[in-house]
Design brief:
- It is a single chain.
- The protein is an alpha/beta fold and 336 residues long.
- Helix content is 42%, strand content 18%.
- Helix 9 links the parallel strand 9 and strand 10.
- It is elongated, with a radius of gyration of 25 Å.
- The structure holds alpha-L-arabinofuranose.
- Alpha-L-arabinofuranose binds next to helix 2 and strand 9.
């Protein structure tokens, strides 16, 4: 009888511990994955084909057969969700955290928490602005300032009139990416410098398309309505989804665009669908934003695993394209 009583009491104690939350809810990494290096990857969302390519590139590189376990989280385009996801990684006790930050600011607290937990953080794709650079181990991603400058240089070549040398007015519709993201800041700043350098360039309509086709389509439709197609010379889209949206709005309104038309389209990313449109002259300038960052991140973490020092900043390789340099063969060899 005494034994039965002790057994019942033990069961009750365990049950009460569980209901009070005293039993650890941490991700149990020791069970089956004890030899695997665990990497938590926080993406801001899945707003573009480009971002899906980045996710795939990271997933392809951190596979179990290579000794890694990847935990992937999509923050549904909200910074609060991203911060919550990073806190979950910290609680789970992952070995590394990889973050593609939705915007540049607002990361100090959560990065300090990761640092206090001794978890190295790799920032990828877009950068962060923090009070102390030691809050993250390394950055791998795009040089958005260089991307923007490359677009402006291509626009200067496109808009120059070699016969007369005259500078005709250039009316620009500017569709911005997510405000506060490195991608938006670098590309917008470049356009602003372009406007300072070219007094004949002016923005006639500007709005934030959040890097999505749907928003950009609405913005372009509104611009056509308010400004009129005849008063638009160029649409500066801060990514390919936005270019697709702007072109959809022009198709709908029966407005022609492209290298042989009055309205030129400039875009960033250079995903394959956009490069085909560039080769066909529908898009005049495509500046590459390289999403194949998985191998770079893998390389960094492999070095860190060996206790080696890694570079603080690594920029991925990128270039820009105009119709005359593109071929089907080239586009077919690309992976995004
Ligand atoms: O940060 C990179 C940008 O984010 C890409 O240009 C865009 O397509 C993505 O959503």
């Amino acid at each position: 009888m005494k034994k039965i009583l002790i057994f019942i009491l033990s069961v009750l104690m365990v049950a009460s511990l569980i209901s009070c939350g005293s039993v650890s809810k941490h991700y149990d990494l020791d069970d089956e994955d004890s030899d695997l290096v665990v990497v938590g990857f926080s993406q801001p969302g899945a707003e573009s084909a480009w971002r899906v390519a980045l996710t795939d590139s990271v997933k392809d590189n951190f596979k179990e057969e290579k000794g890694y376990k990847l935990i992937y989280k999509d923050a549904q385009s909200k910074q609060d969700n991203q911060i919550r996801d990073i806190r979950t990684f910290i609680q789970q006790g992952v070995d590394y955290i990889v973050i593609s930050p939705i915007v540049e600011t607002g990361w100090d607290t959560v990065l300090s928490e990761a640092k206090a937990a001794g978890i190295p953080v790799i920032i990828c794709d877009r950068n962060v602005v923090v009070s102390n650079e030691s809050l993250y181990t390394a950055f791998v991603g795009s040089d958005f300032k260089a991307e923007g400058e490359s677009a402006i240089a291509a626009m200067e070549r496109l808009l120059a009139n070699p016969e007369t040398g005259e500078e005709q007015p250039v009316n620009i519709v500017h569709i911005q990416g997510t405000l506060g993201s490195s991608a938006q800041i670098g590309r917008t700043n470049a356009l602003e410098h372009g406007l300072e350098d070219h007094k004949n360039w002016q923005v006639v309509y500007e709005d934030c398309g959040e890097f999505t086709k749907a928003k950009a389509r609405e913005i372009m439709a509104a611009a056509l309505e308010e400004v009129g197609a005849e008063n638009i010379d160029l649409v500066y889209c801060e990514n390919d989804e936005e270019a697709f949206g702007a072109m959809a709005a022009m198709n709908e309104a029966g407005v022609s665009y492209g290298n042989d038309s009055d309205i030129k389209v400039v875009s960033f990313d250079a995903v394959n669908t956009a490069l085909i449109m560039c080769m066909n002259g529908q898009i005049s300038v495509e500046v590459e934003c390289n999403p194949l960052q998985g191998p770079y991140i893998y390389n960094l973490i492999s070095h860190l695993e060996k206790g080696e020092i890694v570079p603080k900043i690594t920029y991925v390789k990128e270039q820009s394209y105009t119709p005359e340099i593109l071929t089907t063969d080239f586009i077919e060899t690309r992976r995004y």
